[in-house]
Design a protein that fits this description.
5 strands, single chain
Length: about 100
């Protein structure tokens, strides 16, 4: 499973990126990341979860997951990200800062 993550916006407007190969993670980390994806029902989320009137200083997130021949991209922001997706966003943010 491959994850591509991009965070843009915020006060500084700096874009951060991370690519995670879940299959290359330790067994424990792969299990944890896979659970976050399942808990978020990622492949059932709408493609866009953004506010009707977005605020410029909020972070925007673009997450693309490719797994077993299927691919899904979800775009969301701080205001509209479902609670179930936030653990995955936090994890990917940490990977982008690493």
């Amino acid at each position: 499973m491959q994850i591509s993550f991009e965070r843009s916006g915020g006060f500084a407007g700096v874009t951060l990126r991370a690519d995670v190969d879940v299959d290359a993670l330790s067994a424990a980390d792969a299990k944890r990341v896979t659970k976050m994806i399942q808990d978020a029902d990622f492949f059932d989320l709408p493609k866009r979860l953004t506010a009707a009137s977005p605020q410029p200083d909020r972070f925007q997130y673009k997450i693309t997951i490719t797994d077993k021949g299927k691919q899904k991209t979800v775009t969301t922001d701080d205001q509209t990200a479902p609670e179930s997706l936030k653990p995955l966003i936090r994890y990917l943010n940490q990977q982008a800062h690493a």
